[in-house]
Amino acid sequence: MNDYTKEREASIKKLAAEQVLPNVQWFPGHMTKARKIITENLKLVDVVIELLDARIPYSSANPMLQEIIAGKPKLVALNKSDLADPAITKKWVNYFRSQGIKAVAVDATQGKGIKQLVQITEDLAKDKTEKLVSKGAKARAARVMILGIPNVGKSSLINRLAGSNKAKTADKPGVTRAKQWIRLGGNLELLDTPGILWPKFEDMTAGLKLAFTGAINDEAIDRELITEVFLDTMLKLYPARISERYKITDGLPETALELLELIGKKRGCLMKGGVVDTEKAQRIVLTDFRSGKLGTISLDVPPASEETENNLEKD
Question: How much is the pTM?
Answer without folding.
Answer: 0.82
